[in-house]
Every structure is written in structure tokens, then in C-alpha cells.
TrEMBL record:
Presence of keyword Lipid metabolism: no
GO MF terms, alphabetically ordered: acid phosphatase activity; metal ion binding
Stored InterPro entries: Calcineurin-like_PHP, Metallo-depent_PP-like, MPP_PAP, PAPs-like, PAPs_C, PAPs_N, Purple_acid_Pase-like_N
Purple acid phosphatase N-terminal domain boundaries: 59-149
Keyword field: Glycoprotein, Hydrolase, Iron, Metal-binding, Signal, Zinc
EC class (word): hydrolase
The protein's name in its UniProt record: Purple acid phosphatase
Species the sequence originates in: Lactuca sativa
SUPFAM superfamilies referenced in this protein's UniProt entry, alphabetically: Metallo-dependent phosphatases (SSF56300), Purple acid phosphatase, N-terminal domain (SSF49363)
Domain Calcineurin-like phosphoesterase: 161-359
Family: Belongs to the metallophosphoesterase superfamily. Purple acid phosphatase family.
Length: 468
């Protein structure tokens, strides 16, 4: 019928117009930087970064992380290769003669036919805030000394600078990423590590010697400043064909975190306060549906965050909720459906993830209007929703991901597959500055950046102004 024809034709025209408009107002920037497509190899085991410290049973793989909820504690971990040795740490404040002692524990594990060395963990507590401490591990002529600086007292206007590193691995590119982080004039004081550490599972039988080499590689940073750990898929190490059925076994034996102090029942999800930030670490690879331990913990955790005390609410989880790269596309979708509503409700400032080996930053968007009948399932601009940043570009042996969803979705503000790291620099309770640094640039060069206005303070201002 003629009238119908006209109708169909004009609907078609209209659809083209709308599609055309969508195309021209698609997302932000897809960087056109041209990279080589070569996959980076792991550094050989005889590389300088993997060198074993001299001396019989000398402590190696030294690493620290926050050891309590407020930042007055530190967990010091290290490995002795030949025999258990001592689990004692000697530590003292820079301006003090008084040497204190703390004794930790030693654990080992087996992984198929691999036997771990002796893994020591010692928590030291009740330190002074904002103080440099020296510490010593090992005995006899195999003592090694390091230092760290505790964070300032928790409070709303306390500046603090976090580094962001993800999917690091142990390639030549991994080494460049770490060097760039160390040399960045912004001077990160603690790293939020977004998961996927050693990539030992890329080797036959998940050769756990690569867990050891990785820890020797990163010691030059993590022995001196805490890395806040989250687990990625390369930490699962699930290998039932060889009898290895306990997920996260190497990771949880090697990397202790202060999960009990935030009421968590698992090291895979927990929270800490550090300076003016409240950091919630989640596990993309543990049950997170309703009534699961992780869900119950998060539901009791979010209301506890006092934004007058810690205005910056940061979530770290390995798998991104928003990513517009083809590889891993929508892998975070079930978690998004489950948790995005709470991140919006509790005004999470930023969600940092890895997994996708590239960089991407979204605008402030949310996609929480959908119910099973209304069809409202498209991300929309939402000034009071989190920014999602994918920083899975540490440089592991799987290489970068180049293929992007085209056209760039509107939620995506900037995306580029280059190796690098991030800096989240909290200035005060209202402002923070994020910058992404590529390995191919000079240490101070910012590939992408964004000023953050704190969402809690912003929304209280907004409600003030609308009440007039
Ligand atoms: C473990 O088993 C693999 C495969 O059978 C073998 O190549 C390797 O040498 C063994 N390692 C040890 C420490 O026995
Ligand atoms: C790793 O980087 C450090 C610091 O830049 C350098 O001294 C070292 O030689 C590098 N090692 C390898 C194997 O690339
Ligand atoms: C929240 O933190 C502020 C500032 O530290 C404090 O004055 C207030 O009592 C805290 N509120 C609650 C409910 O603990
Ligand atoms: C907070 O930091 C921002 C950025 O440095 C600055 O513009 C602003 O004035 C600061 N706010 C206060 C209250 O100092
Ligand atoms: Fe991953």
C-alpha cells in the first residue's frame, strides 16, 4: 500500500538521520598513534632485574603493603630460599635510636611439582603517621635494609599521590613501565595495582619460578612503597588436570593484605583508608552475585564510608565495567549489572581496572535505568557517576590490544593502546588530578589527563544550589 510505503520510507530516512547524528557525536578520542605490533618477550631469567641478592639464604622478593585499615600498619613480606631462617623484622623511625622488633610467620606451598621457598609475612602496627622508617630483614651477613614512609593521618584535606599499574608481567616493556613510574616527577607514594602480576601461568605447569622472578623484579619499588593488591585472572592458577584445584593459591600465599581489618572474610576483597582516600578492592573472579560473601561485605562496607573523613572513594577491580576494545568486550557486564547502581548511589569517584591491555578513560556515565521491560539500556551522561579508567597496559607478554569497537561509543572519552602507567594525585578534598603516562614519551609527558572534582562535595554543592 502506497501510504505504508511512504511511511516505511520516511522511517528509514529518519533512522539514517539519527544514525548519522550518532556517528558524528560518537565518543571521544581514539588516539591515532601508530605502534609496532610486536609482542614483547619476558626478560630471560639471567637478567639483571632478577638477580638473587648475595649471601647464604639472603632475603629476596621483599615487598610491603598497608597492614591495617588506617595506614599505621605495614605488612612486610620476603622470601628466603634455602631454609626458613628468621621471620623477624627490625625497624626504627628515622629520627629515633629505638630499634623495635616484630616477628611474623613463615609459609610454604606446593604447586604440582614446585615447592615454594620460605615466604615470610610480618605485620608491624601502631606506627607514627607521615614518618620515615627503616627496616631490616634477614640474619647474619645476609641482612638487608630498606625503608618506607607512612602516609599522613587520615583526613579530608590530605594530599596524596597514588600510582596506577596493571597487568605488569615481566617483559622488557614491564621494566620500562616500572622505570617510567619510578622516574615520574609526580612521585607516586603508593601503587594501586589493578591485577595480573607475574603471568607465571603462561608457562607450562604455571612455572611458579616466574612468581619468584617477578617478585625480585618489582622489589626495587615495592620494598620501599606499598602496592595495594587486587587479584586478576592470571592470579587464579586453577589447573585441575594437575591436581591444582585451589584458586589463587600462589597469589594468596605470597601476597598478604589486611582484609580482616575491614571485616572481610577473604583476601580477595577488602578496603583501606589512606590519607584522604577510601579504597575498595574487589575480586572480579570470585562469586559476587546476591547473598555471596563478597556481595554481603560490599553492602555493609559502602554505607560505612564517611566522606567527610575520606572524601575520595576509589574502587579497584581487575575486569573493567566499561571498555570499548574488542578483546574482552563486555566481560565485565555481569559485574556492571550487579554493582554499578551502588557505585552511582554511593558516589564512587573513580573505578580503576586492568585486564584489557590498553588505556581507556570514560566520561562520567551511568547505565542503571534498565528494568526487564523498559528497554533503557544505553549508557548516558551522568555528572554524578564514576569515571572508569582501564590501565591494563603494564606491558606483559601477551602484548597490546589494538582492535577497538567502531565507532567509538559515546561513553568512551579517550582510548589508546600504548604501554604506560597512571598517577592519581589528590590535591585536597575537592580536587584530584589524573594523568596517564606512556612508556614511549619522556617521564613527565602526560598522554591523557583529567581534573576530578570530588563527587561527594560536588553533589553537596549541587543540592545546596538547587535548594535556592
Ligand atoms: C616438573 O614436571 C615437569 C614436567 O613433567 C618437568 O619438566 C620438571 O622438570 C619438573 N620439575 C621439578 C622441579 O621436578
Ligand atoms: C630494567 O630497567 C632498569 C632501570 O631502567 C635497568 O637498569 C635494567 O638494566 C633493565 N633491565 C632489563 C633486563 O631490561
Ligand atoms: C565522619 O568524619 C567526620 C570528620 O572526621 C567526623 O567529625 C564525624 O563524626 C564522622 N561521622 C561519623 C558518623 O562517624
Ligand atoms: C583544591 O585544589 C584545587 C586544585 O589545586 C585548587 O584550585 C583549589 O583552590 C583547592 N581548594 C582549596 C579549598 O584549597
Ligand atoms: Fe587480566
Amino acid at each position: 500500500m502506497g501510504t505504508n510505503r511512504v511511511g516505511v520510507g520516511s522511517v528509514y530516512l529518519l533512522a539514517c538521520l539519527i544514525l548519522g547524528a550518532l556517528r558524528s557525536c560518537n565518543g571521544g578520542i581514539s588516539s591515532s598513534y601508530a605502534r609496532s605490533n610486536s609482542i614483547s618477550a619476558d626478560m630471560p631469567l639471567n637478567s639483571d632485574v632478577f638477580a638473587v641478592p648475595p649471601g647464604y639464604n639472603s632475603p629476596q622478593q621483599v615487598h610491603i603493603t598497608q597492614g591495617d585499615h588506617e595506614g599505621k600498619g605495614v605488612i612486610i613480606s620476603w622470601v628466603t630460599p634455602d631454609e626458613p631462617g628468621s621471620s623477624e623484622v627490625i625497624y626504627w623511625a628515622e629520627n629515633s635510636e629505638l630499634k623495635k622488633h616484630a616477628v611474623g610467620t613463615v609459609v610454604t606451598y606446593k604447586y604440582y611439582n614446585y615447592s615454594s621457598p620460605y615466604i615470610h609475612h610480618c605485620t608491624i602496627k601502631n606506627l607514627e603517621y607521615d614518618t620515615k622508617y627503616f627496616y631490616e630483614v634477614g640474619i647474619g651477613n645476609a641482612k638487608r635494609q630498606f625503608w618506607f614512609i607512612t602516609p599522613p593521618e587520615v583526613g579530608p584535606d590530605v594530599p596524596y599521590t597514588f600510582g596506577l599499574i596493571g597487568d605488569l608481567g615481566q617483559t622488557f616493556d614491564s621494566n620500562r613501565t616500572l622505570t617510567h613510574y619510578e622516574s615520574n616527577p609526580a612521585k607516586g607514594k603508593a601503587v594501586l595495582f589493578v591485577g595480573d602480576l607475574s603471568y607465571a601461568d603462561a608457562y607450562p605447569l604455571h612455572d611458579n619460578n616466574r612468581w619468584d622472578s617477578w617478585a625480585r623484579f618489582v622489589e626495587r619499588s615495592v620494598a620501599y612503597q606499598p602496592w595495594i593488591w587486587s587479584a586478576g585472572n592470571h592470579e587464579i592458577d586453577f589447573l585441575p588436570e594437575y591436581g591444582e584445584t585451589e584458586p589463587f593459591k600462589p597469589y594468596t600465599h605470597r601476597y598478604y593484605v589486611p582484609y580482616k581489618s575491614s571485616g572481610s572474610t577473604s583476601p580477595l576483597w577488602y578496603s583501606i583508608k589512606r590519607a584522604s582516600a577510601y579504597i575498595i578492592v574487589m575480586s572480579s573472579y570470585s562469586a559476587y552475585g546476591m547473598y555471596t560473601p563478597q556481595y554481603k561485605w560490599l553492602m555493609s562496607e559502602l554505607p560505612k564510608v564517611n566522606r567527610s573523613e575520606t572524601p575520595w572513594l576509589i574502587v579497584v577491580m581487575h575486569c573493567p565495567l566499561y571498555s570499548s576494545y574488542v578483546h574482552h568486550y563486555m566481560e565485565g557486564e555481569t559485574m556492571r549489572v550487579m554493582y554499578e547502581q551502588y557505585f552511582v548511589q554511593y558516589k564512587v569517584d573513580v573505578v580503576f581496572s586492568g585486564h584489557v591491555h590498553a588505556y581507556e578513560r570514560t566520561g562520567r556515565v551511568s547505565n542503571i535505568a534498565y528494568n526487564i521491560e523498559n528497554g533503557l539500556c544505553t549508557p548516558r551522561n551522568d555528572g554524578l557517576a564514576p569515571v572508569y579508567i582501564t590501565i591494563g597496559d603494564g606491558g606483559n607478554q601477551e602484548g597490546l590490544l589494538y582492535e577497538m569497537v567502531d565507532p567509538q561509543p559515546r561513553y568512551s572519552a579517550y582510548r589508546e593502546p600504548s604501554y604506560g602507567h597512571g598517577i592519581f594525585d589528590i590535591k585536597n578534598k575537592t580536587h584530584a588530578y589524573f594523568a596517564w603516562h606512556r612508556n614511549q614519551d619522556g617521564y613527565a609527558v602526560e598522554g591523557d589527563s583529567l581534573w576530578f572534582e570530588n563527587l561527594y562535595w560536588k553533589s553537596s554543592q549541587d543540592s545546596l544550589s538547587t535548594s535556592f
